[in-house]
Amino acid sequence: MARLDVTETFCQIAFPGHLHTQDSLRYASDFQFQDTDTLIVTYPKSGTTWMQEVLTLLFSRGDPTLSQTVPNWARAPWLEQYYCPEVLKASQGPRIITTHLPYHMLAPALQGSKVKVIYVARNPKDVAVSFYHFHKLAKFLPQPGSFGEFLDNFLDGTLYYGSWFDHVRGWTNQTRDNLNFFYITYEEMWQDLSGSLEKISAFLQCPLVAEKLNSIQKHCSFSNMKENAMVNYTQIPDEIMDHSKGCFMRKGIIGDWKTIFTEEQNLRFDQVFESEMGSSQLRFVWEHPEDCDPAESLARGTVMEKSILGAA
């Protein structure tokens, strides 16, 4: 199913038609979760692939066989993509399911469910940069134009998958009160992967000895994932993803936005962020600690701090 130039609109949000249909989006919104399911929720380019790898390795007790032989989309399928029903039919044991859908589209399906929900957020400046580069190589996404044009669309919430701000607010507002919910940031995982793995395994009630956690940490490092064909999307044909335009696993660092944002773009972004998220208790790490002026960070309220939500 190519449909590279098709856009599907569902609940006033646009999705790439290459992977989504009206039927697949309805299937997702009406989905019947099992209590043993684990749902990974992200806005695109926020650490989705990383968390898929982490959960695969946690559930396999550190054994990398599955993560090295089965593509990530087949072991942790996207709920809203057309192939998901067939993958889930063939699955055995606890299921890992992935979604980029906003909360309001899944809220009815999640009500009363004991499914474990893991939400991964990433600082939106790095999300915008990563999403911009992904648009360059993914032929099922529109051409991004200049970074300035793309950033305007990101801030306006008119890209595929909708607004980052709406997505994060929707999933983190009050959801801990009625969901089995765990929140973690990309930056927290990047700064302390070992500690993050311990928190995730505790949330999943999947305790592991130090040896197994060390194995998981090794196999889900960025360098290992970049070389893993089951993760790095090099298996996707060139007519779907133009690998000459870049790598799916690009940098994976904190603060890459500083290499492309102009001073004017950064100022506008900060203004929009304050307007959209000023009342939020969420905190984000914007820069690598070695690149960060502590006094400036403190003044801007962006000091490196752990997520205030943690596990529910």
UniProtKB/TrEMBL annotation:
Residues 35-280 form the Sulfotransferase domain. Pfam families: Sulfotransfer_1 (PF00685). The keyword ATP-binding does not apply. Its EC number is 2.8.2.-. It is found in: Cytoplasm. Transmembrane segments: none annotated. GO terms for cellular component: cytoplasm. PANTHER family: SULFOTRANSFERASE SULT. This is Sulfotransferase. The lineage of its organism: Eukaryota, Metazoa, Chordata, Craniata, Vertebrata.
